[in-house]
Design the sequence.
């Protein structure tokens, strides 16, 4: 995690969960993370319908797009609109990340490039963390979307799409893997023993993230 906002949220989430894989949604106290609320988001997940909807989006997240994002699908941040199928669409990229977080109960950090209609760009970092909701997994996610440096045109010209530049899986306290741009590409094997395959990724045993 390169951005302080991501590190702050991860530290708070890690403290709340203790020995569990994820904390409860009801345990999140906005006052304790008020300094990063503007960059925060909460997703509502429906695995059977393959949907990930923005249930909450902070003011700075919405400012990047120049509009209210609450109620929109997560994939619409990559490309406007919601296609009828994920396969072969820009939305498939975001859905694969949702599946990793939900199914493996791990955190994911993505490096992103936000683009305007004029081709202007800004580097962003997206953190997604699993939450339990009334004891259920696969229901909610907590995250942040933050810019490394805010260019002067932010607030004047909205982002229209995202490009993924990197992916890191924070698998609890012991595992992590970094992928090259494009989620279909596998990272080069590390000089260690028996990596574990998680979908399209290889996970290598390592130290605490």
Sequence:
């Amino acid at each position: 995690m390169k951005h302080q906002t991501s590190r702050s949220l991860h530290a708070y989430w890690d403290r709340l969960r203790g020995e569990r894989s994820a904390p409860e949604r009801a345990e999140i106290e906005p006052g304790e993370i008020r300094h990063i609320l503007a960059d925060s988001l909460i997703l509502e997940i429906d695995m059977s319908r393959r949907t990930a909807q923005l249930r909450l989006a902070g003011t700075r997240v919405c400012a990047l797009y120049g509009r209210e994002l609450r109620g929109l699908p997560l994939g619409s941040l990559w490309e406007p609109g919601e296609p009828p199928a994920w396969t072969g669409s820009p939305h498939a990229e975001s859905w694969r990340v949702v599946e990793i977080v939900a199914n493996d109960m791990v955190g994911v950090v993505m490096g992103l490039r936000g683009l305007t209609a004029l081709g202007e760009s800004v580097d962003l970092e997206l953190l997604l963390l699993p939450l339990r909701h009334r004891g259920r997994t696969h229901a909610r996610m907590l995250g942040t979307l933050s810019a490394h440096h805010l260019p002067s045109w932010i607030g004047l010209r909205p982002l229209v799409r995202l490009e993924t530049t990197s992916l890191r899986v924070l698998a609890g306290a012991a595992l992590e893997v970094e992928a090259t741009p494009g989620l279909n590409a596998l990272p080069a094997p590390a000089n260690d023993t028996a990596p574990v395959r998680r979908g399209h990724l290889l996970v290598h045993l390592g130290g605490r993230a």
Observations:
- The chain has one domain: 4-169.
- Residues 83-88, 173-195, 204-209 have pLDDT under 50 and may be disordered.
- The radius of gyration is 16 Å.
- Strands lie at 40-46, 51-57, 107-116, 121-133, 136-147, 159-171, 175-179, 196-198, 201-205.
